[in-house]
Amino acid sequence: MAFTQTQLDNLRAAIATGSLEVGTGSNRVRYRSLDEMKQIEALMAADLNDTPITQASGTSRTSIAGFTRD
Questions:
Q1: How many CA atoms lie within 13 A of 52 on its CB side?
Q2: 28 backbone dihedrals φ, ψ, rounded to 5°
Q3: Of 47, 10, 9, nearest to 28 (Cα)?
Q4: How far apart, in whole angstroms, are the C-alpha atoms of residue 58 and residue 43?
Q5: Is 0.90 topped by the overall pTM?
Q6: Given pLDDT bands bounded at 50, 70 and 90, which one contains residue 24?
Q7: CA 8, CA 6: separation in Å to the nearest integer?
Q8: What is the pLDDT of residues 48-57, one digit of tens each?
Q9: How far apart are CA 21 and CA 67, in angstroms?
């Protein structure tokens, strides 16, 4: 998915005001709950930071590879 910083900012502004609806003009999204909005916010933030999200916890996860030479 490719989100924009503007989309994330708009979602965060809606969360801050308690609104369940986000968007501009004809592009509007209505969420079912604040929890759903927070899950999408984490997904957007991870996408913009290029960090994977674990589905079970909604937290980011980073992996580091190690190499050895024989």
A1: 6
A2: -125, 145
A3: 10
A4: 8
A5: no
A6: confident
A7: 5
A8: 986 655 554 5
A9: 48
* pLDDT interval class at 2 (50, 70, 90): confident
Q: What residues have CB less than 8 Å from 14, skipping those under 6 apart?
A: 20, 21, 22, 37
Stretch 27-36: mean pLDDT: 92
Q: What b/e readout covers 1-38, taking b as 16+ CB neighbours within 10 angstroms?
A: eeeeeebbeebeebbeeeeeebeeeeeeeebeeeeebe
* Size (the chain), residues: 70
Strand 21-24 to 27-30 pairing: antiparallel
Cα dihedral 59→41→6→24 (10° resolution):
170
Cα 24 to chain centroid, rounded: 18
